[in-house]
Amino acid sequence: MRKIYWMTVAVVVCCLSSCYEDKGNYDYKLMNDVTVNFTMEATEFVMGDVLKVEPQLAFSLGEETNKLAYSWSLNRRQISTDRNLNWMADEEGKYMDLRLTVTDTETGVSYFYASSITVTSPYVNNAWVVLSEKEDGTAMLTYLRPTTKIVPGENGKEDESVYDCAVTKDVYGISNAGSSLGGKPISISQHFVSSWTEDRPQDFTSWLWLVQQGGQGAIDVSGSTYKTEGTLPSMFIHGAYPQGFEPWRVYDMLYLSMAIGMDGKVYTRIKDSYKLFNNSYFMDELPLSYRQQPIDGTMIVRAPRFCDHGGTLLYDKNSKRYFHITDYQSWNGRKYCGRLIVPSVTNESIYEKNPDWGKLDDMSDYEVLYVDAHSDDSWMGLKYVAVLRKSNRYFLQDFTIGDYWGGSSIDAEINSQTDVTSELGAIVKEDSQFALYYAQDYRPYLLISSGNSLYFYYFNGSKVYKYHQFDAPIKSIDVNNSSFQGDAGVGLENGEFYVLDFSTSVIRDVMNTGDSKEKIRFKQGGLGRVVEVIYKWKQAANWV
To answer: Does the predicted TM-score (pTM) go above 0.85?
Structure first.
């Protein structure tokens, strides 16, 4: 036993001695951990966009590890092994996982950072759409998606990101295997469905009503594929147009749709659901009438928030009066669509003080050249402004129409009527185009074309300014009021299209000096003869 005891002690001592001596044989290193991060200028892209991302790496020991491997992946699909990502989007999807994995090849430890991106069709975003007539007389659609490009800085300055457009000429032909629209272009309008419904029975990107004479006729075009999704004749209850009807424009609201003829006659349908683009049928027995007389629908306001307003304003050239055309469904299921209500002026005493002012229910002394709504909506409804002419004198009339919530009446107020003959008398022509630009200061500008020239009237200063002189007559104007730095799109008879900058700084330059180097943001030529320009929204701007 004594012998076994000393042998055990000897083994333990040897083991302890061995552990102590081996302690200095290991080279313990501190881990140079990597913190990975990256930022992007945007998280929404379209097919064909190039994502350029430069990651930011931080090291716990303060010095970068040389032996690193990089792997960029999208939804677990590797798209690059370079440190900096330079990848063209080739996969559509919402909220996809863009991930960078950085691996220390010496230790085998990996570090990562991820972000979410969405890649869509190149045609679904907010964009300019130009309807034009080609040399052969047929219609063409051009899609111009706002983007940016990098311009090298001058005199040592940093490179600058400037406005640009990705242009797709004949987007319909490209999307339909070379098919031609085939007809003479007449008009283009956009329409929406709700983007808030969970079941989403169809694409909720805004669609386009395209009206043309001949060819494919009046068709409804998908705003994401630019393929024909329906024809107007098939949407009438008997599968054909009423006798003598030639389409001029189609206008859709929440529940009410209106097919308007060249003669101004309006045929209506009431949709079963605002969640669907086309359901139910247009009635072809009788056009929309007031006191047994058909109304003229060629002057209908494209109200910015018709679903909240319960309809929109229509000026009837036949009866010389305004109507609020209703578009409302109550909670109990009863629909109040397609009614023509003459607004009741609640401050009628203003006519006693100003007997010459135009009356909403009797404009027989005036010619209404233009009427539109602006974003300065009061507590009682939506404000409108009209350009009036009477005996070679011009006036701007401002009035408010209340929101409609059902019933047989709607309130209105006359706010002002201003004589602007000295400002507009020498400018307005028979073919002048108008547009209200209201992104800043609550609609401060009225855009007016006069031949080759574009002017704007500044409401807050009651003065008109010349913005630009083009090389050909102006045929169409539309505005993008989506941001503080808004734009105007102008199409010319010679096939040129311009995006104009209406930001505060540019407008101030034009007011103070008569010009601005920054006023033209983009120019595109070769479109034939422009017929109409619209700023197409990706989807409805409000709850519908």
So the answer is: no
